[in-house]
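HUMAN: Forgive my ignorance: could you write out one protein's sequence and backbone structure tokens?

ASSISTANT:
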Amino acid sequence: CYVTPLLGAYIADTYLGRFNTICIAVVIALIGHVLLIVCAIPGIIDHSNASLGVFVIALIVTGFGTGLFKSNVSPLIAEQYKRTKLFVITTKKGERVIVDPVMTISRVYMVIAFLLPALVRTDEY
């Protein structure tokens, strides 16, 4: 699924915009996940060719939805921070600090990367 993010970026930039592309991508990925559930139904598993066919289609649909999503979510997060130039603030202790917008966006991504696994616990069912 290395090509689908290129398609997702093209669709978002040319036709739909990032937010709408993300919404459509989530629906497509959801359909792929539902197909994964369908191919695991015992009646479908009994017919191995049908189960394999639905499984392959589910992987392709999920990969397509993920590719549309992946190429648009990071730029959408970065667009939320409006400042583009360095500025100076004074802390409560009286220190003058230079705030770099690039470092701020990098920090946001780091927090998301470290916080997300803690919020989504997959080991408890």
Observations:
- The beta strands are 87-90, 96-99.
- Residues 36 and 56 are 9 Å apart (CA to CA).
- The radius of gyration is 21 Å.
